[in-house]
Amino acid sequence: METITMTLVQEPELFLECYSVTPDLFAGKSLAEIADLPAHEGKIQWKLGDFFKFEGKAGETAADTKIVVNGNVRRMKRFGQQMTAGEIIINSDADMYIGGWMKGGKITVKGNADSFLGIAMEGGEILIEGDAQNHVGSAYRGDWRGMSGGLIRVKGKAGNDIGTAMTGGTIIIEGDAFIHVLTHAEGGTVIIKGDVEGRVGGQMVKGDAYILGNLLYPLPGFKKVATVEKEVDGVTYTFDQFIGDLGERKEKKKGEIIYGNIFLKK
Amino acid sequence: MSELLIKNGYIFDPISGIKGDKADIAIKDGKIVDKVSSKAQVIDASGKTVMSGGVDIHTHVSGPKVNTGRMMRPEDKFFRGSYRGGIIKQGKRMEMGFSIPSTYKTGYAYARMGYTFTNEAAMPPLLAPHVHEEFRDTPILDQAAMPVFGNNWFCFEYIKNKELENNAAYVAWLLNATKGIGIKVVNPGGTEAWAWGENCTTINDPVPYFDITPAEIVKGLIETNEYLGLPHSVHIHGNNLGNPGNYKDTLDTLRLAESYKAKNKFGREQVLHNTHIQFHSYKGTSWADFESGAKEIMDYVNANKNITCDIGQVTLDETTTMTADGPFEYHLNQLNHIKWANVDVELETGSGVVPYIYDKNIKVCGIQWAIGLELALYAKDLMRVHITTDHPNAGPFTRYPCVIKWLMSEKARKETLDTMKWKDKVIAASNIASMDRELGLYEIAMMTRAGPAKALGLAAIYGSLVKGADGNVAIYNLDANDLPSDPELIEAAFQNTAYTIKEGVVVVKDGEIIAEPHKYTLWTKVNMPENAQVMHDIKEKFTKNYTVNLENYAVFDEHVHNPRAIELDVA
C-alpha cells in the first residue's frame, strides 16, 4: 500500500469542505494533480494545495492508497465522503460528515469527530479514538435511509440521534450517549457501553440496541419479554430483553411478528 | 423591430401539416411571419430538426404542494446542486433538486428541452397567490394554472340543484379571482370524502353529507365548461387512481363525456381530457395479479374523438408524488412507509405528498412503465395523446427526452426491459415486448406541442409555427433524414436543444441559457353579466365557512406576473 501524507500549512478562515480527500480521488494521480482537487470554503472554491502540502505517493487504485492527514484539521469536514476502499488516518480532531456515504475502506480519527459521522454509510469501518457528536450513522436530514452496513466504533462518548433510520451495520459507542438511539430504525445494531439518557428505539420497526450502562428514561412503547445471554463485542453478558416499539407498524416474517429489541444489561 | 430567420431546417408542424420539409421560419417582433427583411439575424438550421416550442399540458411545477415537497425532501437536492444555469449578467443561479426542482431549474431545464409553455396541473384556489408568486420566479416559461373544482362545495351545491348557469357564473368568478385558465377535477368527490375519512372509488359512490356522486360532478362540470366555452376542456384525474382493476372506473368516467360536443371558439374538439391515464389503466384484482389495461383504455380513446389524454409515463426514478387526491397519498404511504404530508384546503380541495421510488427491480413498477408506453403506441391519433410524466408523480419532466427515446426506438425499450429483475413477469402482464411500433418526429411533435396546444385551446399562440403564433421555436441536433441508430443520441438531442427561441429571442444556444426575456401568465377572462344569486352565495359562504375574508381572497393584481388574458364573452 502506498502512503500519501498531507500536512496543513494554511488555516482556512471558515470551515473547509474536504470532500476531495478520498483514496478514490487520490488514486492514480500525481502530487500536483492531487493538489489541484477542489475544496470549498463557504461558496468560494479553492484547491486542496492552497491549504495542504503533499508528500509521498498515491497508489494505482483506491484500495492501494493510504492517506495520512497531519496538522489540526478540527475545522475541516467531509474527509472520506463516499470513499469505497483504501485508508485515511487523521492525526487530530476533525469536523462534521467524516465518512459520510462511505462504501468501503477504513477511516481512523485520532482525536474527536463532530456530528454526522458516517451518515448513510453502506460499508467499511470508522474508528474514532475520542468522542463523536450527534447523528452518528444516521440518515441525512429528511432521508429515510440511514447507515446500512459497516462498523463505526467511537471510543469516547457520543451525543444524540445515534443510528436514526438505520437499516444495517453496527455502531459501538464505548462511552455514554444522550437521547434518541435507533429512532425509526429498520435494522442494524447499536451497542452503547456507557449510560444513555433515554428515548431508545422510538418508532423502531426492527433492529437491536444493547446498553451495558443505565438507561435513565426508557420509552413506554417497549415491554420486557425475556432474560437472555448475549455476546456483545466479544464479551458475554446477561440482558433483559424488551421488544417494541409497540406503537409502530409491525411486519411479519414466516408468520412471526418482527420487533425491535432493546437489551439492558442486568 | 427585431427580426430572425431560421434557415433550411427540417420543419415538423402538425398544426399546418408540415412533415419534415426543408423550409425557413421567419419571426418578426416575437411573432411568426411569412418573411423578414435582409437585415434579419440568421440561424442556420441545416441538418437540424425544427419544431415549435414545446407545450406541457400537465405538470406540477409551481405552488404550495410543490413547495411542501421541496421542504419535506432536503435529500432530493443532495449531491445534485452543483450545476449553475442562467445568464452571467444576473449571476448564475443554483439549479437545485431532481424530482422537485427549484423554480430556476424548472425554467432553465424546460427551456433546454425546447419547451416554452407549461400548464400547472392543480392550483388550490385559496392558495393561488403562492402559485403566481412561483410563476414570477420561474424564468423564461409562459405558464398557466388550472384551479381545482372537483371537490368544491359551491359546485357540489349548484350541480346537485341543477343550477347550471349559477355554476358557470361561479366558475367564471373563480377563474377571475385566481387568474386560472380552466377546470381541473381531481378525484371528484373523493377528496371531500377524505375529509370524512372516506373515499369515492367509483363514479357512483356518494360524497358524504353532500349526497352527490362523482358522475354527477363530472357531467355538471363538462356542461359548465361547454356552456362557458372555455379554451380548455374539463381536465380530469378520475376516481380510484393507482389501484388494480381501475380501468373499469376509467372507462366509466370517459363514458360520461359521450353525449357532449365541444362548444368553443378556440379550435378545441374534446370535452374531456383524462390526465396521466397510465395511472388509470390497471387490470387485475391485487398487486399480485396486476396487469396492463392499456389496450382496453386506448381502444375506447381511439374510438371517441371528444376525448384527449396524456400518458403520465413512469420513468423508473426516485421521485415525489403530489396530488390533490388526498386519500390516494394516504394509501401510498401505507404501502411504502416513507414520509407523508396531508393538507385540507377548506371548502375547496385537499392534497398529499409522498416520496416514491419506481424501482425497475419491482414487478409492479416495471408493468407501470410498460403501460404508459403501450398507451402511446396503441394510440391512433397522437394529436389526442400527449407526452407527460405527470411531473413529478411518475417521474421528473427532465426525463421527457428519455420517454421520447422509448417511443421512437424499440431497441431502447428492449434495453430497459432487459435490465429489469422481473422482466418475464413484466412481459407476461403487458404487451410491451410484442410492440414494434416506432414513432417518428412528426408524431413526437404532435404529442409534445401541437396536440397539447390544441387541447388547451391555445394552438393559435403556442405549439405551432403558423403565421401569427408566438415566435417560440426549438431546434434540435437531429438530422430528420438520417436519424441516429443509437437511441441515446435521440435522447441527448431532445435533452439539450441547439437553439430554443422564445418570442423571437434566442434563450438557449447549444444547451446553455443565454437570455431570460419576459414571460407571461395566461388566464381565462370570462366576460359575463354579474350573477346576483352567486355573489350572494359567495358572500354567505365566506362569512360562514371560510377562514379568510372575501376581500382578501382573490389574487391581487401585483401577484400576477405579466398577465395575458384569453378573453371570451358569455351573454
Please provide a written account of the structure.
With 266 residues, chain A is mainly beta. Chain A has one domain. Helices cover 3% and strands 40% of the residues of chain A. Chain A contains 2 helices and 22 strands. Chain A has helices at 23-26, 31-35, and strands at 2-8, 16-17, 38-41, 44-47, 52-56, 65-70, 76-77, 87-90, 106-109, 125-128, 151-154, 170-173, 177-181, 186-192, 196-200, 206-211, 215-217, 223-232, 235-244, 252-253, 256-257, 260-265. In chain A, the strands form 4 sheets. In chain A, strands 5-1-6-8-9-10-11-12-14-16-22-19-18 form a 13-stranded mixed β-sheet. A 4-stranded mixed β-sheet of chain A has the order 4-3-2-7, with no helix packed on it. In chain A, strands 13-15-17 form a 3-stranded parallel β-sheet, with no helix packed on it. In chain A, a hairpin with a 2-residue loop joins strand 3 and strand 4. The longest helix of chain A has 5 residues, at 31-35. Chain A is elongated, with a radius of gyration of 20 Å. Chain B is of the alpha/beta class. Chain B has a single domain (51-513), classed as TIM Barrel. Chain B contains 17 helices and 26 strands. In chain B, the strands form 6 sheets. In chain B, strands 1, 2, 3, 4, 5, 21, 22, 23 and 24 form a 9-stranded mixed β-sheet that branches. In chain B, strands 6-9-10-25-26 form a 5-stranded parallel β-sheet. A 5-stranded parallel β-sheet of chain B has the order 11-12-13-16-20, sandwiched between helices. In chain B, a hairpin with a 3-residue loop joins strand 18 (341-345) and strand 19. In chain B, helix 5 packs across helix 17 (532-544) and helix 8 runs parallel beside helix 9 (294-303). The two termini of chain B are 39 Å apart. In chain B, 58% of the residues are buried. Classes of the chains: A mainly beta (266), B alpha/beta (571). Chains A and B meet through loops of A and loops of B.
